[in-house]
Design brief:
With 929 residues, this protein is α/β, with parallel strands linked by helices. It has 31 helices and 30 strands.
Length: 929
């Protein structure tokens, strides 16, 4: 559970502090060290205790007590170190007396805490949980749940909606393709319909004909037992008649490894299809297939590759399992149902037929639609809801379910309990991911989460540990690894990716969020409340959070994270300076104009995120633990000292003038820098020298104010710079040799260049991504010469309203994979780009006719890639089509070339097209089409 990870992290942090801050712990070091050893001894019981929390409230309470003891120990040591640091700066004689008092108080607190630990240990034995670490037998509850979830290919669903396309694709993968043994995987969150689709395909007529004599279905379960799985398969493949009973009796006497060998021999000469339903981990796959840990690329010793087209079909919640089982096959990722398909599925279950819902009472239809929306496209939730409501068609019953929908969906004790099914994904999480998942319960419903912010919150809360505790950069990398693991396990949904395939925005399904809230409350992890004024003096600790919760109210000096983003706050009280344990302070979009000077007392603060202040108080230099400082939009450009922040990694929003007044060579960890304001207030040569002094600069963002401009920029001394963003007027674009030599990503925005930038930019040897945004170029044509952009993979042109033509010579941009551009720009030479896989057309104005474009598409059949049509349209009251831009991809669209774009109304279009796209514009537009 999350507790084991949190306690482990806290104990490790405590040990590190005892080593790193030994000079401040004189007088209590022996007591603190003994406390640390006691906590480590208690930690040994937690992993198994965590597993038993699910069914034993006594264990849950006991584990909660350990968690609180560890937190209290960390808080005591933190408080002592901070007090010692403060007194060390003061040389008055009376400070010696204060130090003695401080040591005495801390010593007494440690003694009290040790007595508490002794009591916890005694209660563990009195409660009968002294043998937590012994045995790993399955609980009766888990056995019952797995029995209810055991799947069978014969129990096929009668009402299946929205899986026709997926089923056809899957059938083709099973019966066609290469003859090697392939593992094809269905991946998706719990309840999304993986098993339903697998059953539909397993019983499909073409699949039955392709594998007439050798098909088998096996349910694996979270508690993977290879012997049980082998026996399920053998009974279906070998023991099919009465005369085979002797064989069955013989087989049942075999050991597990002998069963695997028997199955291998039986399958060796056959073309087989085996479905392994509900595979949970790579380790489970290795056990089932007998894959050698020394050779992960081997096929295993159970399911042979006879070169005859044999197939295994896996269903799993974890994408890593699918890629591990067969890295050469692309997993088929299940998608949530659209609103219309969700409604169709609900009608089939609730109204027991597929007839038009208009024949039913409007009040029930309205309630039904609202409840279906709450399911957010999750088929299991919709099926459970529809089955429940089909029993009683009265308005009273439907209203009752409507008003308590989460309680009904969480019904336990049966296979239909949605939360019970989803909870299996939580139980299967490794301990280090559980607190990260529970933390997601803090975000509002349907909230789009910035991954940048999420990583910083996880680090501040202590959920992320790296091998080197002091290496905060690797902690951020580790946090990203955690996020990707949760995404691959289908517990988090991706909303937006960056051009280099990193997750920028993410979201949690409503029911997954509800699960996180329930588990967080069970474990006193923290509680969420709607509070109008979190800074009001009338708000008590208990009204905000449970007294046993880790996160406290603003008036508790143990606060680690204070995130007020989006909350209107007129002023921040000076008492915030007493939160000496605070690591994260989020004040973005609060309306604050000033920060109190007491903010300089926050010695533990690692992240300050604020914007649109009148001025930043010149006390930030005191916060020497600061790692991430965001302060965009300062109104007044007053001096700001920051060169004492040796741990600073990200600095965003400092003005050019403020920057040049600091000694940048002291910022030894700074890797990402964003400057803004009036560039002409600094001397150009000196500015670039200050940037060159940075040891590890990777990303630089320059934003000039509207009344300001950049002269030609000489950046060649910035050897380590790989990412450069420039926003603002550039008088003259630098020559290619003046750019950073290792530049891989460049963005130009509002630069208002008069000359074509391509002849210069195409000579940048390591450039991988180029983005030209609004008004970066004011001309009408751009030209890329042969051999230009030798490594460029992504080219994005946004809102370049005056550019009507882009000419790409043969041999230019050989590695281009993504091209985004306006529809109004004619592009020639795209048909020569052999590596192009994605084209995105942005339509930002009315188009006279679609038919020439449709005719053009239908004439090309040479290559296959994705075309994204980024717009939407509808018909107004006068019957005229209206257009507006949308930044999203929609599905369920017909091929434009085949339909003349007549069947894709009311949605953004995302279609897979054949052939090169843009060379047609030279002919069709010039003819007035």
């Amino acid at each position: 559970m999350a507790t084991e990870a949190l306690v482990s992290f806290a104990v490790e942090r405590l040990g590190d502090k005892l080593i790193q801050e030994a000079k401040f712990l004189k007088g209590v070091c022996r007591q603190a060290d003994r406390l640390h050893r006691d906590l480590r001894a208690m930690q040994c019981f937690l992993e198994e205790a965590d597993k038993k929390q699910e069914e034993d409230s006594r264990v849950r309470n006991w584990v909660s007590d350990i968690r609180e003891a560890v937190y209290n120990a960390e808080d005591i040591i933190d408080m002592f170190i901070l007090n010692a640091q403060s007194l060390r700066r003061n040389f008055f004689l009376k400070c010696g007396f204060k130090k003695l008092i401080n040591r005495y108080k801390v010593g007494k607190k440690i003694e009290a805490l040790q007595l508490g630990l002794l009591d916890i240990s005694n209660r563990r034995e009195a409660l009968g949980i002294k043998n937590i670490g012994e045995g790993r037998s399955r609980s009766a509850k888990n056995q019952m749940l797995q029995g209810l979830r055991r799947s069978s290919p014969h129990a096929e669903e009668h009402v299946v909606v929205g899986l026709e396309k997926e089923a056809d694709e899957l059938v083709n993968q099973l019966i066609d393709g290469d003859l090697r043994r392939r593992v094809i995987s269905l991946v998706g969150m719990g309840g999304i319909g993986k098993t339903t689709l697998a059953k539909k395909v397993y019983n499909h007529r073409q699949v039955v004909e392709c594998f007439p004599d050798c098909r088998a279905w096996a349910y694996v379960s979270p508690d993977c037992r290879p012997r049980d799985v082998y026996m399920q398969i053998i009974k279906q493949l070998v023991c099919t008649s009465t005369k085979d009973q002797q064989v069955l009796e013989m087989v049942e006497k075999l050991q597990e490894h002998e069963l695997g060998d028997f199955l291998h021999e039986h399958l060796k000469e056959k073309r087989y299809l085996i479905v392994l339903d509900d595979v949970w981990s790579c380790r489970d796959w290795n056990c089932l297939a007998k894959v050698s840990s020394n050779d992960p690329d081997c096929l295993g010793n159970v399911f042979p590759d006879g070169g005859n087209g044999s197939r295994l079909l896996l269903t799993t919640r974890d994408k890593d399992v699918a890629l591990h089982a067969d890295a050469r096959s692309t997993p088929q990722e299940m998608q949530l149902l659209s609103k219309q398909k969700s409604w169709n599925l609900f009608c089939g279950k609730a109204f027991l037929d597929h007839v038009d819902a208009d024949r039913y009472p409007p009040d029930l239809v309205q309630l039904g639609r609202e409840m279906v929306d709450k399911c957010n496209g999750l088929p299991l939730a919709i099926v459970v809801l529809g089955g429940l409501l089909s029993r009683d068609m009265s308005h009273t019953e439907w209203r009752k379910v409507h008003d308590n929908i989460n309680a009904y969906l969480a019904k336990e004790g049966s296979q239909t309990g949605v939360m019970t099914v989803l909870n299996l994904s939580y139980i299967d999480l490794p301990s280090y991911l559980k607190p990260c998942f529970l933390h997601l319960s803090l975000f509002p419903e349907d909230y789009v989460i910035s991954t940048r912010k999420l990583f910083l919150l996880w680090i501040a809360e202590g959920f992320v540990l790296s091998a080197e505790q002091a290496n905060q950069q690797s902690m951020k990398v580790t946090a990203e690894v955690y996020l990707n693991e949760l995404i691959n396990r289908n517990l988090i949904q991706v909303v937006r990716m960056s051009v280099n395939a990193r997750v920028v925005k993410c979201q949690v399904h409503d029911l997954m969020r509800e699960l996180a809230i329930r588990k967080a409350k069970e474990q006193n992890f923290f509680r969420t409340h709607d509070i109008e004024d979190p800074l009001s003096s009338s708000t008590s600790n208990s009204s905000l959070f449970s007294s046993k919760c880790r996160r406290q109210s603003i008036y508790s000096d143990m606060e680690r994270v204070l995130d007020l983003e989006g909350v209107k706050v007129e002023s921040l009280p000076s008492i915030v300076g007493t939160l000496i344990h605070l690591r994260y302070l989020g004040l973005r979009h609060t309306g604050l104009k000033l920060l109190p000077l007491s903010i300089g007392n926050l010695r533990s603060l690692q992240t300050l995120d604020v914007n649109n202040l009148k001025q930043v108080p010149n006390v930030i230099w005191k916060i020497q633990n600061m790692r991430y400082l965001y302060m965009e939009g300062q109104k007044y450009d007053i001096p700001l000292k920051i060169d004492t922040l040796e741990n600073l990694q990200v600095l965003s929003g400092i003005t050019f003038k403020q920057w040049i007044q600091n000694n940048s060579s002291k910022l030894t960890c700074l890797g990402k820098l964003k400057l803004e304001g009036r560039y002409e207030l600094v001397e150009g040569v000196e500015f670039w020298k200050s940037i060159a002094k940075l040891r590890v600069p990777k990303s630089l963002y320059l934003k000039a104010s509207e009344e300001s401009s950049f002269p030609s920029l000489a950046m060649d001394s910035c050897l380590y710079l790989s990412k450069l963003d420039i926003k603002g007027h550039i008088e003259k674009l630098s020559e290619s040799f003046q750019f950073p030599p290792n530049l891989s990503q460049l963005t130009l925005d509002s630069c208002r260049l008069d000359c074509d930038p391509m002849p210069i930019l195409e000579k940048l040897p390591k450039l991988l991504t180029l983005r030209l945004r609004a008004e970066s170029y004011l001309g009408t044509e751009m030209h890329v010469s042969a051999n230009g952009f030798p490594q460029l993979k992504v080219l994005q042109l946004f809102e370049l309203s005056k550019v009507i033509k882009l000419n790409i010579e043969n041999g230019a941009i050989p590695w281009l994979m993504q091209l985004h551009c306006p529809f109004s720009t004619r592009i020639s030479g795209v048909d020569k780009l052999s590596n192009l896989v994605e084209v995105k057309i942005v339509i930002d104005s009315m188009i006279p006719s679609f038919s020439p474009f449709a005719r053009f598409l239908s004439t090309y059949r040479s290559r296959k890639y994705h075309l994204y049509w980024d717009h939407s349209w509808t018909t107004n009251r006068n019957g005229q089509k209206e257009f507006w831009t949308r930044r999203r991809k929609a599905s369920d669209c017909q091929t434009c070339a085949a339909t003349g774009l007549t069947s894709v109304q009311n949605s953004a279009v995302a279609v897979e097209m054949i052939g090169p796209i843009f060379s047609r514009w030279d002919s069709t537009q010039e003819k007035g089409s």
